[in-house]
Design brief:
single chain; alpha+beta; 5 helices; disordered C terminus
Length: 113
């Protein structure tokens, strides 16, 4: 099993969210379905567009990296994103992740499971 640390953003790229998961497709979909939900940070700010991710073999390494990145200022997070994705392309569609674009379609969750 692999573990991932990832960074998502909203459609205007003004807010960054750092998270950790063992299932990127399901997690990105959850963020999309929570878009607009003020009870979650990613939902409140519509952060379901994937910009960056790292893969880890061990969960403790992924957790430590997530905590490290979360402490960084925005400019350092931007440098990390730029190192792998200098155009800040939304990676959702090219990785086959839903939702992609500026919407979250609840039908996609049924198609992914």
């Amino acid at each position: 099993m692999s573990y991932y640390v990832y960074i998502t953003t909203n459609s205007s790229k003004t807010t960054l969210y750092v998270g950790m998961t063992n299932d990127i497709p399901s997690r990105i979909l959850e963020h999309g379905l929570n878009a607009g939900n003020p009870e979650t940070f990613a939902g409140k700010y519509h952060c379901f567009n994937l910009l960056y991710y790292e893969e880890f073999k061990y969960v403790n390494d992924a957790i430590a990296r997530e905590k490290e990145i979360k402490k960084w200022r925005r400019d350092k997070k931007e440098q990390l994103i730029n190192s792998a994705n200098p155009e800040w392309r939304f990676l959702n569609k090219e990785l086959g992740l839903y939702p992609f674009g500026d919407y979250a379609d609840e039908r996609n969750i049924k198609n992914r499971r």
